[in-house]
């Protein structure tokens, strides 16, 4: 049997969804090792040898080398494919959106979704943060809307890993009380991505 990629993944996580979506898009064979939240798997010594940061996603390449951080996985897996723009400026814009996603988007929208949708009792526990999350999350969505109201995709004229990175948590932003109906450009972009022939949803996994 040919060696394949192994992804340590928590299925509800948008960060874990990114490499799954990309590998399915590119037809890269992979298997999933499910890591349940609070299971202690990521703090076990065998896992820490692969990722001392004790987090998923973690991708183990066919040669056994480990790779952490979801956007690093996107860059590695998409190397040489059309999902990284060939034009130097469009490629720089792609990287710009990857940094934006991890600095301005994910720390607000993903965190809000975790507490308000995934964590039992989280809405009560974090009630004091909801207004802040709304303000900062809508600011990030507004930045995306400014681009997507005049363009089909985020970086250059074609679908790229920038779109995958930001699709992951944007398409479930309503789980965290963000009204995406306020953003027609984003809504149309989400529909374009969902209509791609090799698109899969956040809960999809390969057959064992």
TrEMBL record:
Q: Which Pfam families match?
A: GST_C, GST_N_2
Recorded hits in InterPro entries, A to Z, give: Glutathione-S-Trfase_C-like, Glutathione-S-Trfase_C_sf, Glutathione_S-Trfase, Glutathione_S-Trfase_N, GST_C, Thioredoxin-like_sf
Give residue ranges for domain GST C-terminal: 87-208
Q: Keywords, A to Z?
A: Transferase
Top-level lineage group: Bacteria
Whether Transferase counts among this entry's keywords is yes
Report domain GST N-terminal positions.
3-85
Please tell me whether the keyword Transferase is annotated for this protein.
yes
Could you give a GO molecular-function term held by this entry?
transferase activity
Q: Which protein is depicted?
A: Glutathione S-transferase
> What taxonomic ancestry is recorded?
Bacteria, Pseudomonadati, Pseudomonadota, Alphaproteobacteria, Hyphomicrobiales
């Amino acid at each position: 049997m040919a060696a394949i990629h192994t992804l340590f993944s928590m299925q509800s996580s948008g960060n874990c969804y990114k490499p799954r979506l990309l590998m399915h898009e590119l037809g890269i064979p992979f298997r999933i090792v499910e890591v349940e939240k609070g299971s202690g798997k990521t703090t076990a010594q065998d896992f820490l040898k692969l990722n001392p940061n004790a987090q998923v996603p973690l991708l183990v390449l066919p040669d056994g080398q480990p790779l952490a951080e979801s956007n690093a996985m996107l860059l590695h897996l998409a190397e040489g494919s059309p999902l990284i723009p060939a034009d130097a400026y469009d490629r720089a814009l792609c990287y710009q959106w990857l940094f934006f996603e991890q600095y301005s988007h994910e720390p607000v929208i993903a965190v809000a979704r975790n507490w308000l949708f995934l964590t039992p009792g989280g809405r009560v526990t974090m009630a004091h943060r909801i207004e802040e999350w709304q303000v900062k999350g809508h600011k990030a969505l507004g930045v995306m809307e400014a681009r997507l109201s005049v363009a089909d995709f985020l970086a250059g004229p074609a679908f790229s890993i920038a779109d995958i990175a930001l699709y992951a948590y944007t398409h479930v932003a309503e789980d965290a009380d963000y009204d995406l109906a306020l953003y027609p450009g984003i809504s149309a972009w989400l529909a374009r991505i969902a209509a791609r022939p090799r698109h899969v949803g956040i809960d999809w996994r390969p057959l064992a």
